[in-house]
Amino acid sequence: MNTQQVRDYLLDLQDRIVTAMEALDGGRFITDAWTREPGGKLEGEGRSRLLEDGAFLERGGCSFSHVKGKTLPPSATQHRPELSGAPFEALGVSLVFHPRNPYVPTVHMNVRMLAATPANGEPVTWFGGGMDLTPYYGFEEDAAHFHRTNRDALVPFGNDKYPRFKQWCDEYFFLKHRNEPRGVGGVFFDDFSELGFEGSFAMMRAVGDAFLAAYLPIAERRKAMVFGERERDFQAYRRGRYVEFNLVFDRGTLFGLQSGGRTESILMSMPPIVKWRYDWHPEPGTPEAKLYTDFLKPRDWASA
């Protein structure tokens, strides 16, 4: 296991993504470097990058963290009970971009490595990550482009990977209490080590490297579309689903909070303006209703 190799890649990925998004927005991300001193529940360091109230991004965060802890939190051992209580090391880059324009979808991406050392064994290392798209107003060409880019990135690692990770994403980013998907999905994988360290790390890099190619063409295509208060109101309402998922179901959020992570960095993914309504539904036949009827259901987008 070469932790430095993973760390170097993740820091470079963060820099590349932030540079590209600054060029798109015209603003500058602030950099908040932080350190957790040894002796506490968690030690390590990170670099949070954030742009708020920009021309394109209403709020966008891209964070790197490299931490060590004495005990894996429950969210990390639910599929690996044999590692319960083991010390761990975790590295990752996570981002969420909330554009101002309702016609541009919100996007999330995360790539990470986690290593744990059980008391009676060798270190166990696995990778996780993926990306997913959350539109407010759906466009078929956008969803198809996003999925095809993810599919093509995973082809070198086996033809089974995209269908498998696409289904995993559909199932993971599903709000059970609402009985609806969060968006149009993408790919998601976790606890992945079946290609060995080098192969699994290469697959994680392929997903991370595909992010800009998957998202920037969509952002460029939609960023100048004219919108009004109606579209902003619906965007704020749908953002509520994003908040609900992240606080109730998201393993990354739960891992960070349960392990004693940095709250500001963990909750940087939250949208800045959100609304909830009681038992509200869009009028049939409206563009808002089309999101539900045509997009918030699993589809074979890569073949669309």
Automatic annotation (TrEMBL):
It comes from the Bacteria. Substrate binds at residues 94, 110-112, 260-262. GO terms for molecular function: coproporphyrinogen oxidase activity; metal ion binding; protein homodimerization activity. One of its GO terms (biological process) is protoporphyrinogen IX biosynthetic process. The record marks 177 as: Important for dimerization. Its EC number is 1.3.3.3. One of its GO terms (cellular component) is cytoplasm. It is found in: Cytoplasm. A divalent metal cation binds at residues 98, 108, 147, 177. Transmembrane segments: none annotated. Residues 242-277 are annotated as: Important for dimerization. InterPro entries: Coprogen_oxidase_aer (IPR001260), Coprogen_oxidase_aer_sf (IPR036406), Coprogen_oxidase_CS (IPR018375). Pathway: Porphyrin-containing compound metabolism; protoporphyrin-IX biosynthesis; protoporphyrinogen-IX from coproporphyrinogen-III (O2 route): step 1/1. It is an enzyme of class 1 (oxidoreductase). The active site is at residue 108. Its cofactor is a divalent metal cation. The keyword Nucleotide-binding does not apply. Keywords: Cytoplasm, Heme biosynthesis, Metal-binding, Oxidoreductase, Porphyrin biosynthesis. It catalyses: coproporphyrinogen III + O2 + 2 H(+) = protoporphyrinogen IX + 2 CO2 + 2 H2O. Involved in the heme biosynthesis. Catalyzes the aerobic oxidative decarboxylation of propionate groups of rings A and B of coproporphyrinogen-III to yield the vinyl groups in protoporphyrinogen-IX. Homodimer. PANTHER family: COPROPORPHYRINOGEN III OXIDASE, MITOCHONDRIAL (PTHR10755), OXYGEN-DEPENDENT COPROPORPHYRINOGEN-III OXIDASE, MITOCHONDRIAL (PTHR10755:SF0). Belongs to the aerobic coproporphyrinogen-III oxidase family. This is Oxygen-dependent coproporphyrinogen-III oxidase. It comes from Piscinibacter terrae. The gene is hemF.
